[in-house]
Amino acid sequence: MKTTIAIEGNRFYINGQPTYAGRVHQGRVIEGLLFNSRMINAIFDDENPVTVARWRYPDTGRWDAGRNTDEFCAALPLYARYGLLGVTVGLQGGGAIYDPDVYDHYINTAFYPNGELKPAYCERLRRVLKAADEAGMVVIVNYFYWRQVQWLEGERAILRATEAATDWLLDSGYTNLLVDVMNEFQEGEGLLQSQRIHELIELAQSRTRAGRRLLVSSSVHPQNWLPAGRWIEVVDFFLPHGNDQTADQLRHEIRRLRATPAYQELPRPIVINEDSIHLDSLEAAVDEYASWGYYSQGYGCGGRWKHGRFDWLARGRESRYEELSGFQTIPVNWGINTDEKRAFFERVRQLTGVSD
């Protein structure tokens, strides 16, 4: 184990040095940022025998959770060579497909109904942490996804799941990780909403091993970056999502977050760990000294709404494995195999100055 993530002020440090140390690109400071990508389904599986057939690989005709994780791990050194330092991976994944007959019924969760952890998910996550550690990368581990929380037995199970996941991460010994408790919490009074999400953040922060605790936050829904609640005071770093915004709107939201009393009193890194494939938003984030996260859903995701500014509903899933688009619609080709992926990774390489 060789990769450690830390925060000093509004900058990230890896192994005691600021990320992208000394790097300035066209007058913009890159040092201290954390370019990242949403790879939320890297440890995905489905325990529902009715829906699992929807995830079959086109080249084998069957779903294979181990293959999905192994191919992701194998891709990490390639991502790192382009300067990517972070990936977000979920214990309950994210939207693999949005057709209601599937989305409402597939079961992808690392937690038993009582909040205890499932060993198979832990083993796949361990492989991810190990591969990222060896590549010098950071894993942003997301605990809860709103559509999969339904499989947990209420608030007591959510609290137990938070404890179990945090303890497991600490016991793993890996130090190349950050925590995103709830994917896109929104305004509200529930345990996974803005008025109480601080309870889970503080619970995760309170678990320690030999005096060490994890760096914890929770990602915020793009429709409202500043919902009321104590969360803004307790997060170790900010995790807003930018999916629904133009580049100019993103600039405005970053400035609005920085103008809050909570930020002014305690500046912390701003990490957009889900946005889009639109590189004008990447540029806007860099202009405002915020880390940016690529989000490429992939065609064939179904449903009835657009995912940000890009129309992933324009056509169906590709029929050949080599052509599979995106990093979220299952199954995934984790390679840099499309024009959109290549454009993102090449721009990160240019910004960071990383070369083979």
Write up what this structure looks like.
The model has no long low-confidence stretch (mean pLDDT 97). 48% of the residues are buried. This protein has helices at 65-81, 100-103, 119-135, 154-172, 197-206, 231-234, 247-258, 261-265, 279-287, 339-352; strands spanning 5-8, 11-14, 17-18, 24-25, 28-29, 36-38, 86-90, 138-144, 177-182, 216-217, 219-220, 239-240, 293-294. The protein is an alpha/beta fold.
Short description:
With 356 residues, this protein is α/β, with parallel strands linked by helices. Helices cover 31% and strands 12% of the residues. It has ten helices and 13 strands.
Layout of SSEs?
Layout: E1 5-8, E2 11-14, E3 17-18, E4 24-25, E5 28-29, E6 36-38, H1 65-81, E7 86-90, H2 100-103, H3 119-135, E8 138-144, H4 154-172, E9 177-182, H5 197-206, E10 216-217, E11 219-220, H6 231-234, E12 239-240, H7 247-258, H8 261-265, H9 279-287, E13 293-294, H10 339-352
Parallel strand pairs: 6-7, 6-13, 7-8, 8-9, 9-10, 11-12
Antiparallel strand pairs: 1-2, 2-3, 4-5
Helix pairs in contact: 1-3, 7-9
